[in-house]
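Preliminary data (for renewal application), EPZ complex.
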Amino acid sequence: MEQYAIKGGNPLVGEVEIGGAKNAALPILAAAIMTDETVLIENVPDVRDTNALLQAMESIGVIVERLDRHTVKINGSQIHAHVIEDDLIKKIRASYYLIGALLGKYKEAEVVLPGGCNIGSRPIDQHIKGWKALGTKVDIAHGLISAKAESLKGSHIYMDVVSVGATINVMMAAAMAEGQTIIENAAKEPHVVDLANFLNSMGANIKGAGTDVIRIKGVSKLHKTEYTIIPDQIEAGTFMFAAAVTKGDVTVKNVIPKHLESITAKLIEIGCEVEESDDAVRVVASKPLMHTHVKTLPYPGFPTDMQPQIAVALGLSQGTSIVTESIFENRFRYVDELTRMGANIKVEGNTAIINGVNKYTGASVNAPDLRAGAALVMAALAAEGFSVIEEIHYIQRGYEDFELKLQSLGAHIEKVESEREIQKFKLKVG
Ligand code: EPZ
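Predicted structure:
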């Protein structure tokens, strides 16, 4: 299995281009099948999750043409099945976005129940609640969800919890329902807004995305479009916090600073200097990091997908910090691994009490999930000595060319596949 070999101690310095947002690309790629015309999508991140979803789409007859690494043409006119098979949903949970898309277009869909994952149970009751409100019959049997509707009729839906996935999945189905749908207590993430803008560019009528009330007037047909996906706020935030933990000076380019406000605010709070321009943000960490408190919240609060990354920084900050994870019930699995690198963190329920230490020391650690894996790489880059990160396939789900981008900022990191390659790396970097 591939691993990252890392020698820590180099401050990250320089500029890094941020790619398209994975969590916007997934619903947008799924929604592209809702027209029989051809859709061109640019700035698609070339990561495992988007590639797995495109594979799932091809399995039901969607024509996918990669024009280049980040540009894809989609045509959903030849779809021959509305069933998403088991192995594909296991590869990518977000295949369930195809239910909302297929339901909107064909009024039926069937997909294997997406399991839980490493950060929590990941229920989809709110997705089902929204589809049922639109007139869908939803059955769950033998691990399959099947959704069928004679016709979809607009409805007034109040989400019990703020859910990105449910807001997106209901928005897609409602976009082609008869009449008006109102989604209350909707998620406001940038990727929800990006999907609404994408659907509107195809002729949908969606207003209020980005607020907690989204109003959708259903249309009978959607048409072709050309669309560019927004930059990835979490990839950007990851590199910004990597600058903080390595006492570096990093500029993330091709970003939307507004999407990074809660991340920027925390970096300033812990003692970093942050300079914003139209499409770039520079983070300079020249002073010792200070402790703070942070609670993850739905957008515009501090993102749960940045929780492991800020915890790594707070682990090197002076004083005691508190991190509260209010979104997922099992998102501290990286703490045991970080402890092996010298961190002093105590987890009590959904709260981590972090006593800052002077340094981390290199160790062999396992990435438990996507964002925690990226956070452990950050810790290894700051640590004294060598580290090996196992299970990096999690990281490759959401970060394109992660090690190449870090190398361009001065990091000693390489993808390796054997003990021999680890030894070679150690000899090379000394
Ligand atoms: C999306 O997951 C993201 N994934 C996650 O990013 C992100 O952490 C999460 O939103 C929150 O921002 C994608 O976009 C592919 P939710 P999602 O529905 O939609 C509960 C990453 O690292 N809930 O907003 O599954 C749920 O248990 C990934 O890129 C219900 O109770 O998250 C959680 O506690 C990790 N019932 C809370 O809502 C439901 O029907 C928020 O989950 C749905 C969700």
